Amino acid sequence: MYIYNVTTNIEETAHHTWVKWMKETHIPQVLSTGKFLSAKFTKVLVEEDMGGFTYSVQYTVPDKETLERYYEEDAPALIESIQSKFAGQLVSFKTELEVVDEYFVQRAAATHYLFTYGTLQEREVQLGVFSRSLNGFEDELPLYIISENKVADLYPTLQHTGVKEDVIKGQVYTLSHQELQKADKYEGEAYERILIQLASGKKAWAYIAK
């Protein structure tokens, strides 16, 4: 996995306008390209000789090839939008970081089961959402199928049939309450979280289209 880091010094006169624009417009636009897994917007705690304020945005991306496609397909228009809105008021530079390894502190006790049948089973997505890879176990969800109608014509969802023969195989992960909230944010407004009962008898959360 790679991190695409953009460090920017913004003049004090444009500071508040730029921060609001970054949060509400630019970062969501970058993520909407579908190239990145997550983003962190941070303020650099240093007094700059040049004045102004310095910020860093770190976008996680699964591989170098995806980052190169972002440079070719999306970056020119996004950079142009920054320059047209804040011309002469900021200085930016980019840094590419390759993740060599990751280490994690012991987490608080996890208390929720989450049944997954889609992208949350992918290690790169788990690292982007939870900052760790998950160890799960196989289980089945009876009386459901994967719907033929996809969310935004791309993403799968569940469909309850009530038919005894219908079953979905998936992975179950154990999450803390805080991690479950992160999963809610990742799935977004198009999905809702429901409580289901698995073939093993365990009760778990699962996401279904609204």
From TrEMBL:
Residues 114-209 form the Gamma-glutamylcyclotransferase AIG2-like domain. Pfam families: DUF4286, GGACT. This is Gamma-glutamylcyclotransferase AIG2-like domain-containing protein. It comes from marine sediment metagenome.
